Amino acid sequence: MVTRTAIQISKNIEDPIDPFIVIAGSLLHDIGKTTSHFANFHGLFGGSIAEEFLEGLEIENSTSERICRVVVRHTPTSSIPPETPEEKVVYDADTLDRLGLMGLLRGFIGKEGSMQEILEKYMTSRQLDYDKLNYEYSRELGMMGAQELEGFSAVIQKRLDDRMSSIEGIFEKEGLIGIGSSKKLKKKKK
Ligand SMILES: [Fe+2]
User: Fold this and answer.
1) How far apart are CA 135 and CA 152, in angstroms?
2) pLDDT tens, N- to C-terminus, the chain (190 residues)
């Protein structure tokens, strides 16, 4: 998905792009995710793995270095922003992947907290990620994804609201109040 989006962005921007660097970089961009222990460093870690991976292939050292730079700089967690057009393209493609529907679904996996909290956190970080996109064309793709996502998150929100009101109804019926406004449930005074 990231590779496909990276190719799409490459075709729609004015910056000159080396397609080999973009394709190799986007295919290898998450190679550092071999263990969750390095999740926040997977770009930096991935750069070293990619370097070893490419060693011995009949490609120029400078080409290998450019691919490794793409891997390192594809994510904000590396704290090294993308500089070359190829790095910016893969960065944007990876960000757009995170901003889409699949990104939202992945956002629910293994996260602590209520569905409501996870959804709110995701929508906030989504906006921050969107603001960091490098190309106008990427922002257009992001806007299209946002419309799809808003429909889906509205469905989730409605289900959560319905569930909450039915739970509140049960507590109300049992004479318990305070759910939602307080963690502790109290018996309603008669
Ligand atoms: Fe990544």
Assistant:
1) 26
2) 899 999 999 999 999 999 999 999 999 999 998 765 668 899 999 999 999 999 989 999 999 999 999 999 999 999 999 999 999 999 999 999 988 777 777 777 777 777 778 878 888 888 889 999 999 999 999 988 777 777 777 887 888 888 888 887 787 777 776 555 444 445 555 4
Please tell me what DSSP assigns to residue 182: B
Parse the chain into domains and list their residue ranges. Answer: 2-187
> What's the CA-to-centroid distance between 165 and ligand 1, angstroms?
38
Question: Looking at the domain covering 2-187, what would its CATH class be?
Answer: mainly alpha
Amino acid at 179: I
Ligand 1 centroid, distance to 29 Cα (angstroms): 6
Q: What is the pTM of this model?
A: 0.77
Maximum CA pair distance of the chain?
83
Give phi and psi for 187, each to the nearest 5: -75, 130
Beta-carbon neighbours within 5 Å of ion ligand 1:
30, 75
**How many Å lie between the centroid of ligand 1 and the Cα of residue 13?**
23
For residue 177, the CA-to-ligand 1 centroid distance in Å is: 45
**Which residue type does 143 have?**
M
